[in-house]
Structure prediction request, 108 residues.
Amino acid sequence: MLYTPEMVSRLQKLRSRLYAEFGIRIRLADPELLDILSALAPRTRDPISKNTIGELLSLAGRESAEKKSLEAITEITYRGHKIPSTDEQQNPAPGAKKHVYRGRVFYK
Prediction:
């Protein structure tokens, strides 16, 4: 793949960050480089790396794996049991106040 100068500068920024975190060397000649980066984006803990990978994928005209995985999730798993998400949780009644108790969000 041919890279634009913007993409090359972002790849240079990512080289040292991804090597320090995962021990993976980035080579510009690798034909599967963008696939590797899209697989690493959800795994990295560094927000700068995540943003840079997202910018790279958008410049290349690809969608990040993180966005695809968020769209695919429709059920929540809690202690091995699947909990279906309801419309009531997603769209609260107008005028309802948002409360958080022990990590759970509910509306009163």
